[in-house]
Amino acid sequence: MYQDLAGKTAIVTGASKGIGKGIAERFGKEQMNVVVDYHTDQEGAEDTVASIVASGGNAVAVEADVATEEGIQKLMAAAIDQYGKLDVLVNNAGFSKSEPSEELSLENWQRVLDVNLTGAFIASREAIRHMLENSGTGCILNITSVHQTIPKVNNAHYAVTKSGLKMLTETMALEYAERGIRINAIAPGTINTPANPAEEADPEEKKKTLEKIPMKKIGHPEQIAAAAAWLVSSEADYVTGTTLFVDGGMTLYPSQLK
């Protein structure tokens, strides 16, 4: 646990399930105030809120489309109205649908870019404005993917957004380092979530997945959340502009061992 996080306020986008839920719940254990963003899964968001409160934190669920300025403003207003400030932003919301590039419609391409990348930019811009006008300090954490580095077949839109989010992280970190705002990223590997139930996959599919992971095991949201808590704590106060890979060694390309 990181004592300096107690009482701080965070927005976590896409926090009704999966990695976002894990991060929000860990922030609750750190005694933080958490704005739990969701778009469609109200029940999941309310479950996240209940878990945070049970851990001793404070939380409110807010429905917002993070691909829009209106949605981001709604989240910012909730943080300020409920808790008076914003200290931490976690840009976690994201999705993809596998499609061969020749079949990928412009509409589907644009929606993935809007949610995964444009939304993160809008939220970061608004968070930075608030931080500069108030405490002058703060943390932004972007959830990218190993696919910011590794191409993902039939997911051109997804891979482009994750590599773009990496560069957004580095550019903004450089821009605001001297002004007291730290901006980092976490790149998860294969994580068992409702959107990617890798542990429950067909045995042959699971075997293929494990062959890509040197540690031969699938990760869990709690492991991403542990990294997130450290990165936004004062123990990481000399860390900015970096991507922390939490991937069981996936980006070491285990195929090179064969």
UniProtKB/TrEMBL annotation:
One of its GO terms (molecular function) is glucose 1-dehydrogenase [NAD(P)+] activity. PROSITE patterns: ADH_SHORT. Keywords: Oxidoreductase. It comes from the Bacteria. Its EC number is 1.1.1.47. InterPro entries: NAD(P)-bd_dom_sf, Sc_DH/Rdtase_CS, SDR, SDR_fam. It holds the Pfam family adh_short_C2. Belongs to the short-chain dehydrogenases/reductases (SDR) family. PANTHER family: 3-OXOACYL-(ACYL-CARRIER-PROTEIN) REDUCTASE (PTHR42879), 3-OXOACYL-[ACYL-CARRIER-PROTEIN] REDUCTASE FABG (PTHR42879:SF2). This is Glucose 1-dehydrogenase. It comes from Planococcus liqunii.
